[in-house]
């Protein structure tokens, strides 16, 4: 999941949703000659840009000027199809022209970034043309010119949720239409802070590609269920055959998750305050927000299910039904994908998945018996909410603790469920010299793989690694089976 909300201004100006009647459906533009020329020029530019986005070799600058001119012309041709983004696309042309005129140094697209305000147009199916020199999280660290055609996912019941208890004016759920190579990767977010710019503004939006989240979930969970012989509940199984249903489920999950970073009894906000600390603190923060989405979904399901269906609006019925699906999504994505995705170097999302699996196993709602995985779904909600309670209790108590004492308490909480690395200095007990020293000393003693995979996960990883690798670049139109 993303960590964008906590980095943005609470005072963002949010306009009314705008329905654009004459805009061409963005999916039709994927084969438009202007888009194809724009994408071709962007890819060509990437071939002569260096890591910071500049064109370093003087001999490459004439070609860069040609490619930039093609991008400017293509944006102008496509702009009428995006009237809601008119000021952004005009500023984008100016930024490209200025970058070219100034000799292709480190790019600065602050002006056009400030004009791009997709959170003001959260209309289901509305398209955007997004072009920036930027890096793509979990994709590429190079600030190359990337181009993306996207459409908004905003079903009616999500609008009702956001207008009620789960206000999140900065959240923009998206679906891929087409993209340049920086997004033919594991990146599933579009964040303004990734754009090359001269100064950091107040960020007013953050976007997640729910179609990619949903598609890789469907592929990974299908494979994991087959490998572990897990019999899925009927509604959970339905998600594996329905991309749109899964996308909407992930929108609901992320809507609640992302607003949770700023809410609750928080001793700190690890993503707002840029500080170096043990990676397991980030594990707990991300898991806290996921479990908040889980517990809120349990609450919504129970409260709405207690009412006669005839008394519920169409949106309330959708919220009730998707709330159950969010619970499956949080559990399965965490225990099947997060736990074994990526390297073992300070993998905080992986650790969160390991913790959830072990907690469920040790509280007798998840069983691995006779090489088959079974889950007691009736008992799961209260057990998982209890883990959420434990993390919330840690946070509440730590408001009164020194920072490093909070770190030690968090580690002790984790080791009540997970087994640390036998070589861990933290597990043995930090020396008096470290305990009396600066926080950096504590962090330096944390091993890259402080909590290694269990034997269950080592075996599962061998069978699932290829499946997880195959999800790079996946979209909602890719066969997720």
From TrEMBL:
InterPro entries: DUF6421. It holds the Pfam family DUF6421. This is DUF6421 family protein.
């Amino acid at each position: 999941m993303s960590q964008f909300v906590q980095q943005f201004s609470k005072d963002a100006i949010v306009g009314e949703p705008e329905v654009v009647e004459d805009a061409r459906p963005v999916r039709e533009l994927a084969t438009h000659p202007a888009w194809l020329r724009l994408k071709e020029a962007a890819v060509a530019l990437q071939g002569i840009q260096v890591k910071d986005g500049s064109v370093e070799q003087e001999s490459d600058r004439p070609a860069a000027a040609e490619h930039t001119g093609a991008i400017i012309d293509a944006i102008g041709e496509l702009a009428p199809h995006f009237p809601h983004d008119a000021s952004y696309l005009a500023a984008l042309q100016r930024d490209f022209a200025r970058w070219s005129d100034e000799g292709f140094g480190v790019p600065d697209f602050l002006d056009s970034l400030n004009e791009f305000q997709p959170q003001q147009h959260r209309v289901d199916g509305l398209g955007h043309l997004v072009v920036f020199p930027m890096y793509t999280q979990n994709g590429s660290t190079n600030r190359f010119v990337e181009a993306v055609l996207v459409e908004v996912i905003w079903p009616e019941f999500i609008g009702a949720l956001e207008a009620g208890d789960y206000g999140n004016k900065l959240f923009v759920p998206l679906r891929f239409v087409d993209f340049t190579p920086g997004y033919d990767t594991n990146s599933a977010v579009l964040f303004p802070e990734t754009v090359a710019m001269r100064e950091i503004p107040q960020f007013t939006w953050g976007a997640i590609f729910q179609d990619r989240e949903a598609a890789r979930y469907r592929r990974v969970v299908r494979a994991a269920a087959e490998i572990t012989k897990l019999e899925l509940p009927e509604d959970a199984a339905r998600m594996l055959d329905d991309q749109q249903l899964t996308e909407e489920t992930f929108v609901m999950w992320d809507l609640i998750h992302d607003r949770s970073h700023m809410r609750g009894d928080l001793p700190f906000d690890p993503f707002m305050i840029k500080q170096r600390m043990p990676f397991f603190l980030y594990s707990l923060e991300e898991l806290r927000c996921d479990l908040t989405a889980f517990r809120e979904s349990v609450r919504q399901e129970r409260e709405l299910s207690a009412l006669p269906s005839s008394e519920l609006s169409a949106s309330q019925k959708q919220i009730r039904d998707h709330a159950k699906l969010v619970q499956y999504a949080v559990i399965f994505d965490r225990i099947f994908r997060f736990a074994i995705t990526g390297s073992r170097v300070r993998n905080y999302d992986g650790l969160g998945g390991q913790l959830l699996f072990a907690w469920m196993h040790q509280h007798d709602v998840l069983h691995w018996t006779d090489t088959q995985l079974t889950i007691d779904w009736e008992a799961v909600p209260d057990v998982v909410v209890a883990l959420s309670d434990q993390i919330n209790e840690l946070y509440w108590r730590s408001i009164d603790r020194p920072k490093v004492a909070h770190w030690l308490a968090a580690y002790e909480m984790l080791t009540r469920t997970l087994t640390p690395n036998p070589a861990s200095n933290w597990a043995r007990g930090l020396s008096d010299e470290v305990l009396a020293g600066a926080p950096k000393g504590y962090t330096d003693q944390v091993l890259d793989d402080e909590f290694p995979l269990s034997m269950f996960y080592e075996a599962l990883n061998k069978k699932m690694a290829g499946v997880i690798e195959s999800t790079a670049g996946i979209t909602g139109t890719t066969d997720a089976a």
